[in-house]
Amino acid sequence: MPPRPRTLDRSIVDGPVAAAVFKLAWPTMLQNMIAGLQGVIDHALVGHFVGFTANAGIGVSWQIFLVVMTFVGSLFTGMAVLAARAAGAGDQGQMNRVVYQALLTTIVLCLVVLAPVGWLLSPALLDLVHATAAVKAEALPFLRIMFVCSAGLMLQFLFGGAMRAAGDAQTPLRLGIAMTVLNVAFNVVLIPGLGPIPALGTAGAAIGTCLASALVATYALVQLWRGGWVVSFAGLAHRRPDLAVIRELFRFGLPAGVQGVAMNVAGVLLLRFIGGLALSAQAQAAWAVGYVELFSFITWSSVGLMGAAATVAGQNLGAGKPERVAAAAGAAARIGLTVAVVIGATFVLVPRLLLGVFGMTDPQAAGIAVTLLRYLAVSGCFVTVALSYTGALQGTGDTRSPLAISIVSQIIVPLGLCALFEATVGLEAWRIWLAVVAGHVTRATLSVWRFRQGKWRAIRVELSPG
User: Fold this and answer.
1) 325 phi and psi, to 5 degrees?
2) Using one digit for the tens of pLDDT, what is the confidence trace for 336-351?
3) Band of the pLDDT at 38, cuts 50, 70, 90?
4) What is the three-state SS of the chain?
5) Tens of pLDDT along 407-435?
6) How far is CA 188 from CA 53, 112, 208, 366, in A?
7) How would you class 71 by CB atoms within 10 Å of its CB: exposed for 0-12, middle for 13-18, buried for 19 or more?
8) Has residue 39 got a pLDDT over 80?
9) pLDDT interval class at 3 (50, 70, 90)
10) Among positive and negative, which fits the CA dihedral 109, 110, 116, 119?
11) pTM of the prediction?
C-alpha cells in the first residue's frame, strides 16, 4: 500500500502570523545559505586551481543562465499562487493538479526550448557582456553544459516551490542539503581532477551541478508518485495536459518571469558596463565573488523570506483572511533586516578575509572587490525589505506590480546612472557600485508603497474543479 499523503498545515492560516512566516522561512534560508556555500566552494576551487579568469567565467555564465532560467521559473511563481490559494482553501486535490501541470510544462520547456537554444546562443551571449577571450574560454563550456542539462535543476526548484506553497518548507531543505553535498563531492573531484579523472575546471563545476540536481530530482519524482508528501501525484484523476490550468499558470507567472528576465538582462547589461572598464577582468572577478557569491548570503536568505511571505499571503487569501497578509510582509521584512545587518557588518569589517577564501590574491581585483562589498553592505538592507514585500504581493496574485517596479529600479535607475556617468564624468568601478545601491533603494521604496495601497485584496483566482 502506498503511504497516505500528509495533511495541510492549518497553523499558517490560524496561528500567529510571525511564527508562520518564520516556520516557512528558516528552512529555506538555511537551504539557500548551504547552497551559497556550494558556490563559495566552486569559486574557491576554480580560483585556486585555474585563476581569477575562471571566477569571472562562472560569474558571467551564471548571470546569463539566470536570464533564461528565470523565464522558465515564472511557471513556479504561477504555480505557487494557485497552489497556495488551494491549500488555504483546504483543497488538496486542486493543489496537486496545479503542481502536476507545472511539472509537465517545465519538462517540455527544458528539453524543447532551453537546451537547443541555449547551446546555439551561448557564444553570442558571452560576446554581449564583453567577456575577454580568457574569460570566454572558461565560461563557454560551463554555460553550454548548464543549458543542455538544466532539467534536473529546474525540477528541483519546482518541487521546492510546490512544497513551500503547500506549507512544507522542511522537505525542500532536505532535498537542498542532499543536492549540495552531492554537488560539492562531484566538484571536489571534477574541478581539480583526481586519479584517472582529468582536471575539468569550470566544465567540471557545471557537470557536478547537473549530476547532483538530476539525482535529487529523480528521487523527488519517485516520492511524489508514491505519495506520502503533502503534495502527491498518487491517485490523480487526470494526467494529460490541462490547458485551462496551464493558462492560469502563465497568467500569474508570466509577469514574474518577465520581471526576472528583465532583472537578469539588467545584470547582463551591467556586466557589459563592467566589461568596458580598464581593468575589466579584475572587475568582473570582483563582481563574481562579491555580488554573485558573498552578497548571495543576503539575497538567498531574503529569497527564503520572500517565499514565506508569498505562501502566508496566498494561503490566507485562500482562507478569506486578508488582514493577516499585511502582518506577514512586515514580519518577513524585520527578520530580513536583522540578517542583512549582521552579514553586511562582515563585509565592512573583514572583507579581505572573505575574499581570501576565493583565492583572490590579485591586488587590483581584491581592491575593487573590497570597495564593492562596502556598497553591498548598504544595499543588503534595502534588498531584503524589497523582496519581503515583493513576496507578499506575488503571493496574493499581484505579479504585475513587481514587474513594473523592477523595470524602474533594476533597469532604468542603475543602467541610466551608468550611462550618465560614462557620458559625463567617466565610468569607474565605484560609480557602477553606487548605481547598484540606488536601484536597490528605489526597489524597496516602491515595493512598500505599492503593497500599502492594498489593491491586492481584490485579486481573484478562478479554476474549474479538478
Assistant:
1) -70, -45
2) 999 999 999 999 999 9
3) low
4) CCCCCCCCCCHHHHCCHHHHHHHHHHHHHHHHHHHHHHHHHHHHHHHHHCCHHHHHHHHHHHHHHHHHHHHHHHHHHHHHHHHHHHHHCCCHHHHHHHHHHHHHHHHHHHHHHHHHHHHHHHHHHHHHCCCCHHHHHHHHHHHHHHHHCCHHHHHHHHHHHHHHHCCCCHHHHHHHHHHHHHHHHHHHHHCCCECCECCCHHHHHHHHHHHHHHHHHHHHHHHHHHCCCCCCCCCCCCCCCCHHHHHHHHHHHHHHHHHHHHHHHHHHHHHHHHHCCCCHHHHHHHHHHHHHHHCHHHHHHHHHHHHHHHHHHHHHHHCCCCHHHHHHHHHHHHHHHHHHHHHHHHHHHCHHHHHHCCCCCCHHHHHHHHHHHHHHHHHHHHHHHHHHHHHHHHHHCCCHHHHHHHHHHHHHHHHHHHHHHHHCCCCCHHHHHHHHHHHHHHHHHHHHHHHHHCHHHHCCCCCCCC
5) 999 899 999 999 999 999 988 999 999 99
6) 19, 32, 9, 25
7) buried
8) no
9) low
10) positive
11) 0.79
For residue 243, give every residue at least 6 positions away whose Cβ sits within 8 Å of its Cβ, in sequence order, or none: none
Q: Which cell numbers hold the place of 449?
A: 508603497
Which triple of cell numbers denotes residue 114?
A: 532551453
